[in-house]
Known about the structure:
Distance between the termini: 30 Å
Shape: elongated
Helix content: 40-55%
Bound molecules: uridine-5'-diphosphate, magnesium ion
Strand order of the largest sheet: 7-5-6-4-1-2-3-8-9
Strand content: 15-25%
Number of domains: 2
CATH class of the largest domain: Alpha Beta
Number of helices: 10
Structural class: alpha/beta
Order of helices and strands: EHEHEHEHEHEHHEHHHEE
Largest sheet: 9 strands, mixed
Number of strands: 9
Amino acid sequence: MGMLSVIMPAYNEELMIGKSCRVLAELLENAKIPYELVLVDDGSGDHTWEEIKNAGRKNSHIMGVHFSRNFGKESAVFAGIAQAGGDVVAVMDCDLQHPPETLLEMYRLWEEGYEVIEGVKESRGQESLLHKKSAGFFYKIMSKATGVDMQNASDFKMLDRKAVDSILSMPERNLFFRALSGWVGFRTASVKFEVQERQAGESKWSAWSLVKYAFTNIVAFTTIPLQFVTLGGLACFLISLILTVYSLVQYFRGHAVEGYTTILIMLLFIGSAVMMSLGVIGYYISKIYEEVKRRPRYLISQMMRGGEDVSAEAKKDGN
Ligand code: UDP
Ligand code: MG
């Protein structure tokens, strides 16, 4: 039986760590699946790291990675899969919103030979209206842009070693894990699951952080916004052609075109179109700048396995 590594990013989850570890360990032990749990503390400000160390002391299958600060969930997931030693790697939230029993179903599919098993949300669970709307809007754009249905996609996945290694070998810093597992291809299956309610602690996503997340990931995954800039320019050009013809005709018929208002409107319109386009282009440039710097994706300050400090083993910080 292949070993399963379960990656769980955790940011200010002191209330959930102990319980999640217990539930998962019991589940996997009962199913007789060899496993390890990799908990990545994404620079929490509470006692998450202490909780992870406690859990590790009780169960030698638990491994913990502690970031030097908050690097975000994508980095935490990446660090987790970089440290994972299993033949198959699962990624799930550590707030038990992704039902652990689904892991067994995924594992069975993996044994049948599937290499990428995607968790697909059956319902979006309890979320505020604003959250639902903004998430819905983001996923609609993402689906259009990437050609992958993102509406019900989640970060709950199981990947074969081959898929994991190909994701690890990607050089870019801004990774969008949710879409990447589709991008790599391989033999894919999906499993439906019901999003559970969070039992303790609170969601880390504010509406604003969702908007930022949307922009970052759209830019990380597609250059379509740049084509919108070109299209916008084309539209402006067509309008200007029509207006030119119109003004020339009026001129030769001896009427001057109404001047001030037209010019003012045109100027304001073109000015804002140019500035918005520059904003889009600027955003891509800033992302290129970030990539070019080749900063590590994350910095590990401590690592432990089964309660023992193994910081020296940390695989090179996200490179
Ligand atoms: N998370 C993280 N770093 C962050 C924000 C969140 O590692 O900066 C983790 C968090 O601990 C949880 C998962 O990502 O395990 C999903 O976060 P959350 O439950 O807040 O999101 P939601 O379920 O509300 O979408
Ligand atoms: Mg959650």
